[in-house]
Design a protein that fits this description.
This protein has 92 residues and is of the alpha+beta class. Helices cover 15% and strands 36% of the residues. The longest helix has 14 residues. The chain is globular and about 35 Å long. It starts with 14 loop residues before the first strand and ends with a strand.
Length: 92
């Protein structure tokens, strides 16, 4: 489902996954938990990851999440790819 990026030492590039939807939308805490899961899968230590609620999940919808990873401030650009919750996340 989601592969992990090497986020602890620096961004390796975009990663893909699918987020769980509720009535065609994704709430901020659900999206933040998905980003945190990716970071932890690569032995990173995320804290305070926040994401906005995404009312529409469709191709070309973008959300930006923020938080700390291993004590450094990060942003995560989440590009929604389709109405099924598929996405690409780019750590910056």
């Amino acid at each position: 489902m989601v592969t992990a990026a090497a986020l602890g030492g620096g961004p390796d590039g975009p990663e893909r996954g699918r987020v769980v939807l509720t009535a065609g939308a994704v709430d901020g805490p659900t999206l933040a938990a998905e980003v945190e899961r990716q970071v932890r899968a690569d032995d990173g230590d995320p804290s305070g990851i926040t994401c906005p609620a995404t009312a529409e999940v469709a191709q070309d919808v973008t959300s930006v999440c923020h938080g700390d990873v291993d004590g450094d401030e990060w942003a995560f650009v989440v590009f929604i790819e389709d109405d099924q919750g598929s996405y690409t996340v780019l750590p910056v």
